[in-house]
Structures are given as structure tokens and as C-alpha cells.
Design goal:
It is a single chain. Helices cover about 30% and strands about 25% of the residues. It has helices at about 70-75, 115-120, 135-145, 160-175, 190-210, 220-225, 240-250, and strands spanning about 30-40, 45-55, 60-65, 85-90, 95-100, 180-185, 210-215, 230-235, 235-240. It starts with about 30 loop residues before the first strand and ends in an 8-residue tail after the last helix.
């Protein structure tokens, strides 16, 4: 099982082509700028000419059918795929971006505790790469914020799906991110756990000022929480607020 939500990410994002996205650094509040980004594997194009920006505190939902390029776009933002054209700019750097992948399968004998998972998301600001007191305080605060501090000595493999998702979200928050990338975070959760997680994400966006880019097939959650919707099908078909999305794209069959 991969313990890290950010594990194996490069320390620096692959540099975009010249003039692709550097101007985003001059715009106040921008935490992510994607500029005419094209991505693919070998000679197969998957995402083409995608452009958008996300500001501090925005809650943006990325929707589209299976195979529309959502996961590929996340990989491009994280620097795991080199752009074929265009570029990505993270004005605060990759270290200020946290990624919560879709699945966190833990073996029954996996020994890590909730506390160890949360602390592993910190920036290790102590001497010689050790955790500092500030790192530990922030990890504990993240657990408290998500309501699972009382579970910190429990093994991650012993938790319910909703509790486990909170633990990995606490790991993301322990790194003080400005941008959260969430890939289908409601997958495998029951209704109550999904509703609880939905409320937490809205609070993080509205009260903590963390920008969120979330892919989801849960159109109800999109309608209830998003401040903005992106519709992807190889290229960006729609970028607008929820009301406009409901009036134009909500019933389109390719979203099913």
C-alpha cells in the first residue's frame, strides 16, 4: 500500500515551454494556472489545449465521462507527465500542492497508525530532516480539524472507509497546502461518510482558504458544494459557475 498521498512526486514540476504560464505569478490569488496544456502517452493524445486558472479558496469540480482525461490532467499538474504543448504554473510550488488519490487500500497487517500517516505529510522542517515541534503540532491540528484526533493511535487498516479518507486528508493538510487535488474522494464511502467529507471540504475551502480541484462523478455533491465546474472530454468543454452548468451541461449523456 502506498502510504503517501504525495509520495514519489518530483521536487520540482517539469518546466513548461517558454512563456507558457509564467504570467500567472503576477496575478494575485492564483494558486494554479494551466495554459494551453496538451498531454498524452507515446503518440496518443489524451488532453488537448486545456486552459484555466484557480484562485485561493475556490472549490472547483472537474467532471467528465470515464476516459475523458481527468486523471491524466492531474498527472500533468503534478509534473508526472511532461506536456506535449503548453504548461502548468504553480506559483507557490509543488510543495504547496497536496494530492489525495482515489484509493488507499491498506493490508490488514499494515502497521502505520493514524498519527504516523498524518505526520508523514509534514514538511520535515526540523534539523537533519527530522520532524520539528511545529510539524507535530500541525499534524495534530489537522487531525483535530477533521475530528479524528481520538483515533491517532489506531492502525490505519482498522478504520472505516470514511475514517481512513479523513486520515489521508489530514496527511494532506499537515503540509499546509494552498491547493488540494482530489481524485474521486467519495469512491467507496457510504452516504453518511460522503456527506461528512463533503461538509469538511466545503469548510476547508470557505474558512481555511484552501483551493480545491476535485474530480467527481457525484453530481449531487458538485451541485451542493462547487463554486465552479470544469467539464472535460479530451478538451475543456465548459468552465463556469454551477448555475450555468445546471442550465447547460447537467443532463448531457457523456457525463454519465
Amino acid at each position: 500500500m502506498s502510504l503517501s498521498a504525495n509520495q514519489n512526486l518530483p521536487t520540482e514540476i517539469n518546466p513548461p515551454p517558454p512563456n507558457a504560464a509564467a504570467s500567472a505569478r503576477l496575478i494575485p490569488g492564483i494558486v494554479l494556472h494551466v495554459d494551453h496544456l496538451s498531454l498524452g502517452y507515446n503518440h496518443r493524445a489524451v488532453v488537448g489545449e486545456v486552459s484555466f486558472s484557480i484562485r485561493k479558496g475556490e472549490y472547483v469540480c472537474l467532471i467528465g465521462r470515464n476516459g475523458s482525461g481527468k486523471s491524466t490532467l492531474f498527472k500533468g499538474i503534478l509534473g508526472l507527465i511532461r506536456p506535449k504543448n503548453g504548461g502548468v504554473d504553480l506559483p507557490y510550488g509543488l510543495k504547496s500542492t497536496a494530492f489525495l488519490p482515489q484509493n488507499h487500500d491498506a493490508d490488514d497487517d499494515f502497521p502505520a497508525t493514524v498519527w504516523e500517516v498524518a505526520l508523514s505529510g509534514s514538511r520535515r522542517s526540523g534539523r537533519f530532516g527530522f520532524y520539528s515541534r511545529a510539524d507535530k503540532d500541525l499534524a495534530l491540528h489537522s487531525l483535530e480539524l477533521l475530528g479524528i484526533a481520538d483515533l491517532r493511535q489506531r492502525r490505519i487498516s482498522d478504520l472505516s472507509g470514511g475514517q481512513r479518507q479523513r486520515a489521508f486528508l489530514a496527511r494532506c493538510l499537515a503540509g499546509s497546502p494552498r491547493l488540494l487535488l482530489l481524485d474521486e474522494p467519495y469512491t467507496g464511502l457510504d452516504y453518511q461518510a460522503a456527506e461528512s467529507l463533503s461538509a469538511l471540504l466545503s469548510e476547508l475551502s470557505a474558512q481555511q482558504g484552501i483551493a480545491i480541484l476535485m474530480s467527481s462523478h457525484d453530481l449531487g455533491a458538485v451541485q451542493a458544494n462547487a463554486s465552479r465546474v470544469l467539464v472535460l472530454d479530451g478538451t475543456l468543454l465548459f468552465d463556469g459557475d454551477v448555475r450555468e452548468w445546471l442550465a447547460t451541461f447537467h443532463t448531457k449523456p457523456f457525463l454519465k
